[in-house]
C-alpha cells in the first residue's frame, strides 16, 4: 500500500510519499560454505566453514521469529521559498533601434530553505534521516541519520554540519561525528580566507572496538600564511589485535610528523616516522621497529638534505 501527496503555494513546495508492505527474508536460510584457504606466501590457513546459516547463527531467528517482516517507509521533502531577491544591475546600449523602455536591473530570487526527511520502520531496525540546507545570514547544511534496533551492532548515529560565513572574508567550517557500538569517529575542519591571510585546520579521530581488534587513530593538520606559509601535520595510530582462534596477536604504534615552511627566499621541509609492532602468529612470536628522519632546506645559494633510517625485526619462521 502506498500514498503520494504534493503541494505548491506562495510560501513552499512540498511532497510526501508513504509505503507500507511486507518483505521476504527466506534467502537468509540458504546455507553458506567457505572452503579452507592458504594465505599466499605463508603457511597460514583459514578455517573451513560448512552449512553456515545467517538466519540461525547470527541470532536473527531469535529476534525476528519469522522471515516474513512488515515495514513502513516515509519520505518527505519541502522547499520554503525566500521572498528576498538578488539585484543585478545591467545597462543596454541600443543605438540602431528604439525601444519604449528597458529594464535597468535583473531580479533573481534568493535561495530558500530545503529539508528532507526519511524514515523506515521494521521489526529488525528503524532508520531516520533528516537533511537541511538553510540560507540565512550564513549558509548552513545539516544532516542527521540514526537507527535503533534489537541488535546493538546495528544502532548508530551519524551527524554532520557545514556552514559558510561571509563576514570579514569567507569561513567554511565542517563537523562530522559517528557513534556505534564498534566504531566512533569525529572530524572537524575550518578554512578561513581574508584579504591578508588564509588559515586551515583539520582534526580527525577514530576509535574501533571489535572482539579481535582495538584501534585508535588521530590526525591533525594546520596551515596558515600569516608571516610565512607554514604547514604542520601529525598522525598517530595505536592498535591491539588478538585472535584466539588463530593463535595470533599484534600490538603496535605508528607516529608521523611533518612540517613545511616556505618563502620566496627559501623552502624547508622536515618529517619523522616512528613505528613498532610486537605479536605472534600461530603462537610464533615476531617483533619489529622502524624510525626515520628526513629534512631538506633549499634557497637560491645552496641545498641541504639529510636522511636517517633505523630498523630492527625478529621473525620466528612463519615464511616459506
UniProtKB/TrEMBL annotation:
The lineage of its organism: Eukaryota, Metazoa, Chordata, Craniata, Vertebrata. This is Apolipoprotein B. The gene is APOB. Keywords: Cholesterol metabolism, Chylomicron, Cytoplasm, Heparin-binding, LDL, Lipid droplet, Lipid metabolism, Lipid transport, Lipoprotein, Secreted, Steroid metabolism, Sterol metabolism, Transport, VLDL. Its main location: cytoplasm. It comes from the Eukaryota. One of its GO terms (biological process) is cholesterol metabolic process. It is found in: Cytoplasm; Lipid droplet; Secreted. GO terms for molecular function: cholesterol transfer activity; heparin binding; low-density lipoprotein particle receptor binding. One of its GO terms (cellular component) is very-low-density lipoprotein particle. It comes from Vulpes lagopus.
